Amino acid sequence: MNGYTGKALIIDLTERKSEEIELSQSMLRAYLGGSGLAVRLLYDHLAPGVDPLEPGNVIVFACGVFAGTIVPAAAKHSVATKSPLTGMLGDAMAGSFFSHTLKRAGYDAVVILGRADTPVYVFIDDHTVYFRDARALWGQECFATEEAIREELGDEAVRVSAIGTAGENLVRFACIGNDRGRQAGRTGPGAVMGSKNLKAIAVRGSGAVAVADNDAVYQTSCDLITQAQGPATGKYREPGTVGNVLTLNRLGVLPVRNFQRTALDEAEGISGETLHRRHHEKTVACAACPIACEQVMKVAEGSHAGARVSVDYETLFALGPCCDVDDLPAVIRAAELCDTLGMDTLSTGVTLAWAMEAAERGLLPPDDGVDLRFGNADAMVAMILKIARREGLGEILAEGSRLAAQEVGKDSDYFAIHSKGLELPGYDPRGMKTYALGLAVGTRGGCHNRSLAYEPDLKGKVDRFKAEKGRGQIAMAQEDVAVLLDSLGICKFMRGCFTDLHEEGARLYSQATGWDVSAQELVEAGERISNLKKMFNVREGWTRELDSLPPRLMQEPIPDGPGKGVSLPPAELELLVSDYYEARGWTAEGEVAPATQDRLGLSGQTA
Amino acid sequence: MSESNIGEGSSVGPDPYPSGPPRYQLVTCVRDLCVGCQMCEFACAIVKEGTANILRSRIRLVRTEPVLMVSIACRACAEPACVDICPQPGAMVINPENGLVMVENTHCDGCAHCIDACPFGVIALNPDTKLAVICDLCEDRAEGPACVEICPKDALEISTPEIIAQKARKGALRQLLEELAGPE
User: Fold this and answer.
1) Phi and psi at residue A65, in whole multiples of 5°?
2) Is the pLDDT of residue B155 over 70?
3) Among B46, B67, B127, whose Cβ lies nearest the Cβ of A70?
4) Which positions in chain B touch A282 (Cβ < 8 Å)?
5) Per DSSP, which regions of A31-94 are E strands?
6) What pLDDT is attached to residue A432?
7) What is the C-alpha separation between A65 and A4, in angstroms, rounded?
8) What angle, 0 to 180 degrees and rounded to 10, lies between the N-to-C axes of helices A214-227 and A501-513?
9) How far apart are CA B94 and CA B101, in angstroms?
10) pLDDT at position B184, please?
């Protein structure tokens, strides 16, 4: 097989056994790889209704078709599981060398079942699988674990996906780190690994991924590399996504103080440009990526001297403006702690912002020595450690904002900023109505990255303050583009390098696989995968009221900035959501209609 | 009568090597520009070996620290340790035209002593033929080295030790001037 390896590895941790299965051409063509393949395999291997942190949960790693080839910026791998944070589809992605290496070891995907009785790590050494003792690694941080495993195996080329303290302690938004700074960040897959006593997956791949037409793939890749040095990727290259702070502040959609405000009076000091000027140390790329968006920041002096980590916009937003912290060295330290302890910076920051507000309102029990309030950078840094260790207030906050608010009560869920339990990213949905819809209906919860629905709002293709019929169709099309990229394993930052993603994507896919695939087939694949994700959620008990946004954002109008006075009342969101269901061909209740299932080849697959 | 034009400039035509003598050209990597993307390894493996297997690349990316990354290929040593140690007569020879180390496949027996000896780790054994492979600057390729051509960040270039040193001197001077000018 070209492009694909045509094989998946099923690993049973309980039995400490592994088995290779064949992946058919029709299955790969229908679900593409990456996110699509991961969700398909999860759907097929997971029994419905399982507690996400019980051994019955399943975690799937899947690569894109181009991973292991020269195709640029196509190194994303997908991690799918039932999320301990949302109870719905856990759907994370990470970049860098892991997927390239897994493909070169001979696998498109790895499905992990069961639970080891003692801590282990799995070493996939080309086609041989070893279950290795990880008791000595338990308690170690993400990066340190990677290094220790490479040291133990004596090979620098081994790639490792590992959890840190947070995953071990079942922090519900624990992530999985790989390649010294890339993360499968959202929805808590690190906690699922922790629950399985699985410290890490290490891979050594010495083979090659073949493509059907070497010359054509080489030439197309060279063209894309050239494109990727042009204006389409300019902002990712410098200063990186952190440049969003000033842009979003100007548009009045930069959430400040746990979404109580939408702009900073003084944004320059916390801007990406300032961060870059003062702290930038090195620009780094994922495997075969010509963009290189990872901006490593370093603190040279002061109490956080030595802190070093890559910082992107969502991290800066969550640990900066959302907590009203304007101390850049503290943000870098906090981000470094999240990465080494292995927790999602976004959920960490937004959950901390909820805690700061709750503490200021006197709703939280006091915590020894940590004075949580907006702007207190030291408290933020101290609490991150406590969350990972589940100490003091960290025990409550490790559950994420939704469960923490339930535990604390006293109407604190009013300002818990999540959708389906996943904390919102750094855009205020009230001033971006297409995006608001994308967030509300998103299968993994509050996520800009899966919906891509912010794009028409920010590019001025629609009136971003207006909710109207027609947005359902737009949000659906954007979501299907996102899922297509996630399934091909192509980084979203490359999307501007394609004039027509479906046409050019189909050509490249055909060159790599040797199968004659049309643009229309890719459009349908995107739609099919989006629908399967929804079917997964429905099977896990999804109900319509989950397609919603936090009460604060539906009850308070925008308090300041260019969107001042604009609101997003529940009736308006309802209109948007219904319009989306209709565009999708779903029932009025929001379930995938049988006719739609038939059309996409998904029928007969609900439990 | 033997005439030499060395040191006098050429009176018989354009100097074919304006940037230095033909010997000891090598692919060099500007560390600050390298982002560790591995594109050079892919280009080399595909162009020279017809496979995307980066283990077959003659230029190798070293990326061992979060911010330290550099690609490295044959350094074209004047007295290469690989040639000195090679026990097979005629298996490794220096091309008198350009100073590159050439592996004669008919003589190499894959003993890997050259790999042990190379202080830069830039010799590999082809896993199929078990013979040594070394960067040849893509001398058979009109466009020059594929790695240099593909590098998205222009971190790779063909250079000579003299030019590399020249650039280092200029960089040192620039740094000195910046330090004298004081902080922004």
Assistant:
1) -65, -30
2) yes
3) B46
4) 66-67
5) 59-63, 77-82, 89-94
6) 97
7) 5
8) 150
9) 5
10) 57
Topology adopted by domain B20-73+136-179: Alpha-Beta Plaits (3.30.70)
pLDDT of residue A605: 52
Least CB–CB distance from A290: residue in B37, B52, B64: B37
Out of A384-388, A504-508, B93-97, B154-158, least confident range? B93-97
Rounded Cα–Cα distance for residues A556 and A438 (Å):
20
Establish whether this prediction's ipTM goes over 0.85. yes
pLDDT in tens, B102-123: 999 999 999 999 999 999 999 9
CB contact under 8 A, A72 and B39: yes
A47 DSSP 8-state letter: P
Average pLDDT over residues B146-172: 93
Q: To probe the interface with A, which of B34, B57, B67, B148 has the most A CB atoms within 10 Å?
A: B67
**Which chain A residues are closer than 8 Å to B49 by Cβ?**
none
Residue ranges of chain B that CATH labels 3.30.70.20: 77-134
Q: How far is Cα A299 from Cα A191, in angstroms, rounded to an integer?
A: 30
Which residues of chain A are modeled with pLDDT < 50? 606-607
Pairing between β-strand A109-113 and β-strand A7-12 as defined by DSSP bridges = parallel
Tell me the nearest-neighbour CA distance from A209 into chain B, angstroms. 6
Which residue is listed with tokens 């399982």?
Answer: A50
Indicate whether B4 pLDDT > 90: no
For chain A, which domains are there?
Answer: 7-204 (3.60.9.10), 219-423 (1.10.569.10), 429-599 (1.10.599.10)
- Apex CA A451: angle with CA A470 and CA A384, to 5°? 145
Burial A195-211, CB ≥16 within 10 A → b, else e:
bbbbbbbbbbbebbbbb
Instruction: Give me the pLDDT at residue B95, please.
Output: 87
- The answer, yes or no, to whether the previous bond of A239 is cis (omega within 30 of 0) is yes
Give the tokens for residue A263.
Answer: 């702009």
Q: How confident is the model at residue B6 (pLDDT cuts 50, 70, 90)?
A: very low
CATH class assigned to B77-134: alpha beta
How far is A121 from A129, CA to CA, in rounded Å? 10
Half-sphere exposure of A68 (CA within 13 A, CB side): 30
Q: d(Cα B63, Cα B78) in Å, to the nearest integer?
A: 27
Distance CA(A544)–CA(A532), nearest Å, equals 17
Considering CB atoms only, which of B35, B52, B67 is closest to A68? Answer: B52
Q: What is the pLDDT of residue B162?
A: 84
Does the predicted TM-score (pTM) go above 0.90? yes
Residues of B within 8 A of A180 (CB-CB) are 65-66
Number of Cβ within a 10 Å radius of residue A239: 22
Give residues with Cβ within 8 angstroms of A83, minimum separation 6: A52, A89, A90, A91, A187, A188, A189, A421, A422, A444
**Cβ–Cβ under 8 Å, residues A412 and A239:** no
The closest alpha carbon to B146, from B24, B56, B62, belongs to B56
E strand residue ranges, B1-103: 26-29, 60-65, 68-72, 92-94, 101-103
Question: What's the pLDDT at B10?
Answer: 41
